[in-house]
């Protein structure tokens, strides 16, 4: 899949300014801006986000086809076999869809065993009922899960645990703050290792950055950004610790009454779910290194484990299918189609080629501008083709950049952190918003932007200072 992305990105870069008229690119750029505006006004126009994106996906497909931007024909497999497939099917990133579907079903089924309630209550008891300590615990868990698994799965699991914990503490008034902070931390955690996110894999592979080298450069920033985000979350959402002895005694009395085993109806199914969860984490974390699974992908792992746990309720699977957020899946499918047409119309290529001029402004200034512009671009487009485009631009630069050049890291940090600027900037923030709305919490598209932008700005500024600082210190070399 990544090879196809890189090839299409390279072709788009080479085609910029030659094959596609500038007016056509401008029209599609206007459509992209119009879609983002419509999503921002979702509540006022009384339409689901899947419907909004679906309308724009259809319009983009019709216009792109009329202008001969899309290449129709049979899909050719590696063995030479050809078969017909609609162009909008191949435009969708099916691994993301299958990860969301499989992880959602897996969490829904295993939650029946009481395993997530047990984990949430156990963690709540260890916090002593202190909301600030609980936020610290869930914040660290979010980063670790995002680094080990993927942002979407991390958000689904942590979001479920958070809801249980705060309900038990009778502090559901803090749920919105917890979920927003956790959503923002998923993209921070996605920076921790070379395999934590797709942009990391793409840029790291093209640049030739090793796994250990990637971790050593990224880890200090992740620690700093996590601490800063948690502190800002505490201030923004008034998540205070217990102030005096009376509050601590009252919280301790409440927590002592919690029984983590109250929701465990079957010890057999409980331990089965524990084993399934551990194996789920293990196979997702090691998927890229395990033969066969490395080719099948994370989506296959998520769907397989969903199927395994569904066997425990094989006569009532329709109940679990009914709770799947089909609107979220349809939204992503439509979004991928829109972004794919934007790529064919050279909208992403123009963004990339425009950024190319920033590199020639000097190492420090160029590094900063590239990081910021990458973040802004990835907040409104899919960061996967964008990262591929920018990585190809850097690779084709003359003279070639070494693996420790700061520009690679500008793209890596920008592509990941830009997802925190808008609710559609990354899959995990979309999932976070879905969980927020499922809990009937008041937060609109623009509401998210207003809340998240200060966090994102601080994270991006810290990233700029961090990368420029490493360059100045000689750790990274222009």
Compact overview of the structure:
The chain contains 24 helices and two strands.
Written overview of the protein:
This protein has 478 residues and is mainly alpha-helical. It has helices spanning 2-15, 22-40, 42-45, 49-66, 87-90, 94-111, 115-126, 131-148, 151-168, 175-189, 198-207, 211-236, 245-256, 267-286, 293-296, 298-310, 317-322, 326-344, 347-356, 363-378, 383-395, 406-417, 427-438, 445-473, and strands at 75-76, 82-83. It has a two-stranded antiparallel sheet with strand order 1-2.
Secondary structure layout:
Elements lengths: L1 H14 L6 H19 L1 H4 L3 H18 L8 E2 L5 E2 L3 H4 L3 H18 L3 H12 L4 H18 L2 H18 L6 H15 L8 H10 L3 H26 L8 H12 L10 H20 L6 H4 L1 H13 L6 H6 L3 H19 L2 H10 L6 H16 L4 H13 L10 H12 L9 H12 L6 H29 L5
Antiparallel strand pairs: 1-2
List keywords for this structure.
single chain; 478 residues; mainly alpha; two-stranded antiparallel sheet; 24 helices; 72% helix; 1% strand; globular; disordered N terminus
Radius of gyration: 23 Å
Residue fraction in strands: under 5%
Question: Got a strand count?
Answer: 2
Oligomer: single chain
How large is the count of helical segments?
24
- pLDDT below 50 for ≥5 consecutive residues: which ranges? 1-18
């Amino acid at each position: 899949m990544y090879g196809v992305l890189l090839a299409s990105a390279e072709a788009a870069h080479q085609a910029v300014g030659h094959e596609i008229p500038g007016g056509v690119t401008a029209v599609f750029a206007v459509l992209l801006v119009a879609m983002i505006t419509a999503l921002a006004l979702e509540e006022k126009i009384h339409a689901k986000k899947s419907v909004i994106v679906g309308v724009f996906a259809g319009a983009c497909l019709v216009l792109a086809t009329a202008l001969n931007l899309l290449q129709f024909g049979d899909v050719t497999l590696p063995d030479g076999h050809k078969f017909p497939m609609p162009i909008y099917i191949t435009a969708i990133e099916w691994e993301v869809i299958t990860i969301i579907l499989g992880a959602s079903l897996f969490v829904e089924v295993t939650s029946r065993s009481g395993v997530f309630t047990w984990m949430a209550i156990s963690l709540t008891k260890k916090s002593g009922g202190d909301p600030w300590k609980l936020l610290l615990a869930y914040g660290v868990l979010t980063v670790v899960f995002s680094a080990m698994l993927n942002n979407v799965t991390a958000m689904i699991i942590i979001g479920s645990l958070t809801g249980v914990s705060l309900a038990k503490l009778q502090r559901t008034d803090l749920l919105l703050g917890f979920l927003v902070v956790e959503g923002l931390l998923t993209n921070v955690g996605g920076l921790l290792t070379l395999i934590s996110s797709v942009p990391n894999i793409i840029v790291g592979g093209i640049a030739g950055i090793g796994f250990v080298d990637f971790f050593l450069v990224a880890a200090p920033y992740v620690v700093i950004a996590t601490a800063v985000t948690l502190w800002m979350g505490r201030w923004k959402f008034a998540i205070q610790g217990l102030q005096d002895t009376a509050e601590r005694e009252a919280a301790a009395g409440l927590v002592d009454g919690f029984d983590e085993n109250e929701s465990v109806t079957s010890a057999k199914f409980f331990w089965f779910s524990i084993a399934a969860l551990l194996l789920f984490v293990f196979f997702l974390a090691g998927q890229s290194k395990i033969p066969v699974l490395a080719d099948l992908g994370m989506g296959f792992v998520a769907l397989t484990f969903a199927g395994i746990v569904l066997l425990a309720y094989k006569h009532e699977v329709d109940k679990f299918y009914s709770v799947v957020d089909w609107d979220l899946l349809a939204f992503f499918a439509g979004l991928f189609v829109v972004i794919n047409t934007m790529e064919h119309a050279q909208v992403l290529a123009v963004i990339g080629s425009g950024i190319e001029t920033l590199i020639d402004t000097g190492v420090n200034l160029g590094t900063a501008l590239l990081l910021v512009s990458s973040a802004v671009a990835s907040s409104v487009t899919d960061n996967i083709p964008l990262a591929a485009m920018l990585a190809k631009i850097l690779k084709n630069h003359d003279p070639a950049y070494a693996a420790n050049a700061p520009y690679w890291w500008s793209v890596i940090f920008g592509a990941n952190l830009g997802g925190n600027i808008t609710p559609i900037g990354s899959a995990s923030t979309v999932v976070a918003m879905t969980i927020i709305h499922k809990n009937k919490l008041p937060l609109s598209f623009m509401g998210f932007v207003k809340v998240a932008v200060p966090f994102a700005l601080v994270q991006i500024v810290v990233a700029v200072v961090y990368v420029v600082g490493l360059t100045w210190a000689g750790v990274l070399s222009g």
